[in-house]
Known about the structure:
This protein has helices at residues 2-5, 8-24, 28-38, 43-50, 54-61, 70-86, 90-95, 118-124, 148-154, 157-165, 181-189, 210-219, 231-239, and strands at residues 106-117, 127-131, 139-147, 170-175, 196-200, 223-226. With 242 residues, the chain is an alpha/beta fold. The protein has 2 domains: 2-95, 434 Repressor (Amino-terminal Domain) (Orthogonal Bundle), CATH 1.10.260; 106-239, Udp-n-acetylmuramoylalanyl-d-glutamate--2,6- Diaminopimelate Ligase, Chain: A, domain 1, CATH 3.40.1390. Helix 2 (8-24) packs antiparallel against helix 3 (28-38). The protein is elongated and about 55 Å long. The relative contact order is 0.13. The model has no long low-confidence stretch (mean pLDDT 86).
Amino acid sequence: MIEKEVSITTKEILMSRIAGEIILSDGPGTVMKKWRQLFEINQSELARYMGVSSSVLSDYENNRRKSPGAGFIRKFVSALIDADMKRGGIHVRRFSMLHRDLSVAVLDMNEFKKPKTIKEVVEALDGILLVGKEWDNELIYGYTVIDSLSAIRNLEALDFLYLFGKNPNRAMIFTKVSRGRSPMVAVRLYPIKPKMIVIHGPRLPEEVDAFAMELAELEGLPFSLSLLKSSEEVIERLKKLL
């Protein structure tokens, strides 16, 4: 029954996406490790699904072996999908959400080659962490920069779900924010949450909406204010982390 809930085409698209990212990367082992962690499966379990020893998988993930061949990558990706489907397919469904053209509101979206800590992201954005200082060392795997005003004008409710569901271990950066309440209300409405929220617009912490910070506390989400001058500078700083 679970298998029928995710179409073959959808799974194939996801498999191609993961395989393509591995093949095109300068550090394929690092990308493999990232996807294994995103699927929340440990090394030894995935190795069993692949029919290889965990030491072989470890060598590839740590780039101690030459780049994996097409056959190994195919086996790796298939094992990720199979293992997740056995558990209910939650990550397959999450990462397979239909791609929609959200360019009207999404200014930039990328995955880090190596995950960054929340502290590293905050510092890169000349940020002040208003909520969640205890999570400084939590890992961020990517980011999405959103034009808040354009999102409000042009996106439908389901579009926000796609934004939050692309990769839950990511930073969502909302630009052109007045006080920060709207982004947190949007996040509050959806079951899939990003790893952290960054707002850009207010020039001082005192200008940030107190209720927004209260919602961040309730959701257990790191909430940061970027003090960079422009959206362009926000994107430029993020790209330097790639």
